[in-house]
Design goal:
Blueprint: E1 2-4, E2 11-13, E3 21-22, E4 29-30, E5 36-39, E6 51-52, E7 65-66, H1 73-93, H2 96-103, E8 111-113, E9 118-122, E10 125-127, E11 132-136, E12 141-145, E13 148-156, E14 162-166, E15 169-178, E16 184-188, E17 192-195, E18 198-201, E19 207-211, E20 214-217, E21 220-225, E22 229-233, E23 237-240, E24 243-247, E25 252-256, E26 259-272, E27 275-293, E28 296-312, E29 315-316
Parallel strand pairs: 8-11, 9-12, 10-13, 11-13, 12-14, 13-15, 14-16, 15-17, 15-18, 16-19, 17-20, 18-21, 19-22, 20-23, 21-24, 22-25, 23-26, 24-26, 25-27, 26-27, 27-28, 28-29
Antiparallel strand pairs: 1-2, 1-5, 3-4, 6-7
Amino acid sequence: MLIECLHCAAPLDVTVGKSIYKCNYCGRKNVPQQMRTLAQVTPVKWQPPKVWTPPAHMAIAGQSLKYSRAIGLTMMMPILLGVLIPLIAVFFGTGGGNWLRVAMWDQESTLNCEPNGELEIEGVDAKVKRGAVIEMSGNCTVTLINSKISGPIGIKGGGNAQINIEDSTIKAEEIAVDGKGNAKIKVTGKSKLHGKVAGINGGGNARIELNGATVFGEETGIDSGANGKITMRGGSKIEGDEIALRLGSNGDVDIRDSKIVSDKGTAIQGGANNEVKCNGGSIKGKVAMVFQTSADLRLGKCKVKGRKELGRNVKNQ
């Protein structure tokens, strides 16, 4: 509807039903009952004049008044969407959505990493009562830095998970890090992983790298699964009450200046076709090693304490 301002006679495009209308030119407030109606329905192509000059019969006749109305919501929406949608796309496409997800995390419920996502979590002290503290979808990367997390499961990976743990502590009622298939797990600094079932469950084809870290499981320290590859550096330690390191078939372990320990049970237990290299480290257990068949043990510079139970075709150098 078009009405006429009482003070400058300018035409105003208004929404019916308001108790007061403010003029877009002179800024004065108008009571609708006193205003003259110019058109019951605003013409489709009507546009307000950019400048209005009040007629001679008005008190402010002859002045040039510029249109100064704020853009209405309906007019703003296309503009806002045109600007915001690209910004939002850039924000989430460059990891901003992941940053926002971490920033808004209450640290009492599960933090989810979306498929192909990447989360960097630093300086948190999270305690979750159910499920995993951090749950990853496929192809997700999680980096945990200088943090403490605890719950039934610390980090639960999806397929092809990339898990980086730096100077952090994970304490789990079940598994500290559950890598699933094709996981790449890197634990560095003074990190400590503790799980009642396992410190790390690698899943098939796991790649596990420890550098200065400690992994402990009340049942199993690390269960690498089939085709697992484990490297230990910088004074790292794997410890388990029953089994410190469990290898499936085709496992590969490279130990340098690090320890695998099970005071009450077995330090390393492996299936078929495993290779163990130890240079400047130690393997200690009530049973130091159990291998079924076809193992290649290169222990020339390694301190081994505990009996060995070696099956067929085991090379012990």
